[in-house]
Amino acid sequence: MLACAEAWRGNGEVLASPMGLIPSFGARLAKRTFSPDLLMTDGEALLVGLDGETEGWLPYRRHLTMVTGGRRHVMMGASQIDRFGNQNISCIGDWARPSRQLLGVRGAPVNTLNNPVSYWIPRHSTRVFVERVDMVSGVGYDRAAAAGVTRFHRLPRVVSDLGVFDFAGPDHSMRLASLHPGVTVEQVREATGFALAVPGEVPYTREPTAEELRLIREVIDPKGLRDREVRG
Fold first, then answer.
1. N or C: which terminus of the chain has fewer CB atoms within 10 Å of its end residue's CB?
2. Is 96 helix (H, G, I), strand (E, B) or coil?
3. Cα 4 to Cα 62: distance, rounded to the nearest angstrom
4. Which pairing describes strands 163-166 and 158-160: parallel, antiparallel, or unpaired?
5. How far apart are CA 71 and CA 74, in angstroms?
């Protein structure tokens, strides 16, 4: 959760759009601690505060202005992701005859080309971290560059249950940025379906402070719902 929260560090007054349980908890933790200027919504037309109280109105036209101007930071999931950050949430297998039908592209193309997008993947495996995605939903660095649409395209980080990753490798390829405590580089490599850029020294992901732990356990997720998504 803390690694997800860190995705919004230093973002300033941008619209946080977390999709899913752990990203939502992470955004709330970030706003309560090191990113107090984050804007949060109720998912419809209102800006809300830390406890869900209404802080303002966010009409759809203004929402779209923020989306297309890089003033929103989304954290999505991924059924597949490759070394350049191309993401698939649409189907598994050949597009004409997929073996699995998933969500569809949804807003992933617009999200990735118009505002920063990070990813949360609770089960790091070679089925998710693949050499080539079966269909591009979210646009990666290689395809954005080829299409000449890089002005607002940025993929700050990928967080999994094994570590944190960025795209500071060669040609904006995925790089191991930090290991979660207790995880080894070998474990990450074995669970990744492509050659991952790994620096000479890999730090461990920052652990939460005592106050951050209190907020997580007593304020943000007192029912321990996070444990249903992340294996021990």
1. C
2. coil
3. 26
4. antiparallel
5. 10
Angle subtended at Cα 47 by Cα 104 and Cα 70, rounded to the nearest 5 degrees: 55
pTM for the model stands at 0.92
For every residue of 41-53, DSSP letters joined together read E-SSSEEE-TTS-
Cα 30 to Cα 41: distance, rounded to the nearest angstrom: 15
49 within 8 A of 96, measured Cβ to Cβ: no
pLDDT of residue 44: 66
- Sketch out the chain's domains with CATH numbers: 2-224 (3.40.1080.10)
Structure tokens at 19: 């999709």
Q: Which two tokens stand for residue 114?
A: 């118009």
Question: Checking DSSP bridges between strand 80-81 and strand 158-160, what pairing results, if any?
Answer: unpaired
Which is more confident, 84 or 230? 84
Count of CB atoms situated within 10 Å of the CB of 216:
22
